[in-house]
Write a structure and sequence with these properties.
By secondary structure, the chain is mainly α. Helices cover 55% and strands 8% of the residues. The chain is built from 9 helices and 5 strands, in the order αβαββααββααααα. A 3-stranded antiparallel sheet has the order 1-5-4. Strands 2-3 form a two-stranded antiparallel sheet. A hairpin with a 2-residue loop joins strand 2 and strand 3. Helix 2 crosses helix 5, helix 2 packs parallel to helix 6 and helix 2 crosses helix 8. The longest helix has 19 residues. It holds the Pfam family SocA_Panacea. InterPro entries: SocA_Panacea. This is DUF4065 domain-containing protein.
C-alpha cells in the first residue's frame, strides 16, 4: 500500500476540514488535530461509506497521522521547506504557529470554505472535536491504536493504514464493508 497523492480538489477539501477544526478549537496542537481528523474520518467512513478526507493515514508511534497534512504542517511551522508552487502550500499558507517556541500549536490564518464540507462531514467533525479535544495525549494515543493502526504498524513503522480496516475499527457493519469494497473496485476501474 502506498501513500496517495492528492488532487488539487482533495487538497482544497483537506484545507477546508483542517481550517474548520482549527477555527472550532481556536488553537490546537497538531497531535490533537490529527486524532480529531482520524476519528471523524473513521466514523464517517463506517457510517456513510465515504471518507471526509483522502489523505493517507500512516501508523506512527503515537497513532495515525495524515501524511500530506503532516508535510504541510511541517512547512507551515518552518520545520521543513517545500518547492515553489508545491500543492502543500494550499494548506501551509492557510495555517501558522503563532509562537516558534511552540511550533506544534496551530492557528488558522483564514476561515474554511464551508462549501467544501457536507453536513455529514460537519456532524462527524463536531462529534470528534467534542469527544477528543480535551483528552490527554497518552489516552488519545492509546485510543487510536485500533485494529487498522496495529495492522499497519506490525507490517512496518510509518506504514500506510488500510482504509477498510479503519471503517471496521469505526464500527462499520459487514454490508457497509461490502459497499466500501465495491466502491473501491469501481474507483480503480474508473481511474
Amino acid at each position: 500500500m502506498k501513500i496517495k497523492e492528492l488532487t488539487i480538489d482533495e487538497m482544497l477539501k483537506l484545507k477546508a476540514v483542517v481550517l474548520y477544526v482549527i477555527n472550532k478549537c481556536d488553537e490546537i496542537d497538531y497531535f490533537h488535530l490529527f486524532k480529531i481528523l482520524y476519528f471523524a474520518d473513521r466514523a464517517h467512513y463506517a457510517k456513510y461509506g465515504r471518507r471526509i478526507i483522502q489523505d493517507t493515514f500512516c501508523a506512527l508511534p503515537k497513532g495515525p497521522v495524515p501524511s500530506v497534512l503532516f508535510d504541510a504542517i511541517k512547512v507551515a511551522t518552518k520545520q521543513a521547506t517545500a518547492v515553489n508552487n508545491s500543492p502543500l502550500s494550499i494548506i501551509s499558507n492557510s495555517i501558522e504557529s503563532p509562537d516558534s517556541a511552540y511550533y506544534f500549536i496551530l492557528s488558522a490564518k483564514e476561515l474554511p470554505d464551508m462549501e467544501e464540507l457536507s453536513q455529514s462531514d460537519i456532524d462527524c467533525l463536531d462529534a470528534s472535536i467534542k469527544e477528543n479535544k480535551n483528552v490527554d495525549i497518552d489516552t488519545l494515543s492509546t485510543k487510536s491504536h485500533d485494529e487498522a493502526w496495529r495492522n499497519a504498524w506490525e507490517k512496518q513503522k510509518a506504514h500506510p493504514m488500510d482504509a477498510i480496516l479503519m471503517a471496521k475499527a469505526g464500527g462499520a457493519n459487514e454490508s457497509m464493508i461490502e459497499y466500501i469494497k465495491e466502491n473501491e473496485e469501481i474507483n480503480k476501474l474508473a481511474f
